[in-house]
Design goal:
This protein has 422 residues and is an alpha/beta fold. The chain is 19% helix and 21% strand. Strands 4, 5, 6, 7, 9, 11, 12 and 15 form an 8-stranded mixed beta sheet that branches. α4 packs across α6.
């Protein structure tokens, strides 16, 4: 890993015709200005629904969670759907708004079985005293098997791998619930592990990843990020564990400077899409690049040998993607927030744990020491060919910010189509 700012400017190009000579005024100067550790994420890009960022701006040396919560959806507490007691009335019988497990598995043609020998870990900052109880309501609502500490399905650890003391609540609970729920949706039979970092500092989160692997995780999801910067190099080793699939959200700011840890060459960078029902079509769903999905060309990390996109000389983000747009978003149950109960959440924070669960269903995490297999897959992926993640920075229609046939930055190599590519 080395400093590549001298060539970074050549990756933010104003038009395809100028690829050989143009130099963007963004790039190196912008990267230097943000190298102190400020968050990569600007205000939410999606204008389709009112949302707020779950986590505030990150300080120097810290990451921020990448979840976005809808502010126009408030649907109460408790078990819903068929699992709700009949005497609770019709309101309780209705499933909550947002995509649930059956929707997501249908959209990506994932089986409801598989992964019983897999453990999906989610790494977050701070504690969530309601995590186990909230997960129980989610799983009961959607008819998923119980997953508790008592039955051995769920484990909650601090960054040293101990069950206590758990860290203080840092208001990441919506992120934590999203991570647990999305992983459960993709892999109902999987064991789930929550590893809580002492704080949102990069050293604590990296230590939590190492702990997850030591504790037996087969897939590790990281729904947080900070702009790539000098000082991130020593933590790359924590996100490299051959035999374990490590995933990270690409970011929610659209095209620009990529996030760490997603930019590490051993990490599967999870991009984001807008997922929409399409009755009457063969798939029953359509997808386009979500405007907020993070993508970008690294100024610090060399291009992996398995990446061959034409116009980025460094590591390009993302690798693969799934639903991230908060409109309509995922149904999530979380009582440790000011709204409380059923909420609708999106962001590439949804893509990372869902894709980790999808890999777990397939049951072959050793195939993912990095994202290279997605670049050689000939089946098992939906190619996302429409949409763009241009926000304040434009790439002139280049694949780095615009979806099209084959690889593109916002959606990577596409989204899961069954388990053939997983």
């Amino acid at each position: 890993m080395r400093h590549l700012h001298a060539r970074y400017g050549r990756t933010l190009l104003v038009s395809l015709a100028a690829l050989a000579t143009a130099v963007s005024p963004v790039g190196a100067a912008s990267a230097h200005a943000r190298a102190a550790g400020a968050s990569a994420d600007r205000p939410a890009a999606s204008a389709a629904a009112p949302v707020r960022q779950v986590c505030g701006p990150a300080g120097p040396g810290q990451a921020r969670c990448l979840a976005q919560i809808r502010t126009d959806v408030h649907t109460g507490t408790g078990v819903r759907g068929p699992a709700a007691h009949a005497s609770a009335g019709s309101a309780a019988a209705a499933l909550p708004p947002g995509y649930g497990p059956a929707d997501l598995r249908d959209a990506y043609q994932l089986p409801s079985t598989g992964g019983a020998d897999q453990t999906v870990a989610v790494v977050d900052a701070g504690g969530d005293p309601s995590a186990e109880a909230d997960l129980a309501v989610y799983r009961s609502t959607y008819g998923l098997p119980p997953c508790t500490v008592a039955n051995g399905c769920l484990s909650i650890l601090n960054q040293r791998g101990q069950t206590s003391p758990l860290p203080a609540d840092l208001r990441w609970s919506v992120e934590i619930s999203l991570d647990l729920d999305a992983a459960s949706a993709a892999c109902p039979a999987c064991h789930v592990m929550l590893v809580e970092g002492d704080d949102a500092g990069i050293p604590s989160l990296a230590a939590a990843v190492d702990t997850a692997v030591t504790a037996g995780a087969t897939e590790v999801s990281n729904s947080y990020g900070a702009t790539e910067q000098n000082g991130m190099q020593p933590y790359a080793a924590s996100y490299s564990h051959p035999g374990v699939a490590i995933l990270a959200s690409s970011g929610d700011s659209g095209y620009g400077i990529p996030n760490t840890p997603a930019v590490y060459p051993t990490v599967i960078a999870a991009g984001g899409t807008t997922l929409t029902r399409a009755p009457g079509t063969a798939r029953g769903w359509t997808e386009s690049a979500w405007q907020g999905a993070g993508s970008g060309c690294s100024a610090w990390v060399d291009k992996p040998a398995w990446q061959h996109d034409a116009n980025c000389p460094g590591r390009m983000v993302a690798d693969i993607s799934s639903v991230a747009d908060p409109n309509p978003g995922l149904a999530v149950y979380d009582t440790d927030n000011k709204t409380g109960g059923w909420v609708v959440v999106g962001g590439t924070s949804a893509a990372s744990p869902f894709l980790a669960g999808a890999i777990a269903v397939a049951g072959n995490p050793a195939a993912f020491p990095d994202a290279s297999s997605f670049y050689t897959a000939t089946t098992g992926l939906n190619d996302v060919t429409t949409g763009s993640n241009v926000t304040s920075t434009d790439c002139g229609g280049d694949y780095q910010c615009t979806a099209g046939p084959g690889y593109d930055g916002p959606t990577g190599n596409g989204t899961p189509l069954g388990t053939a590519a997983l």
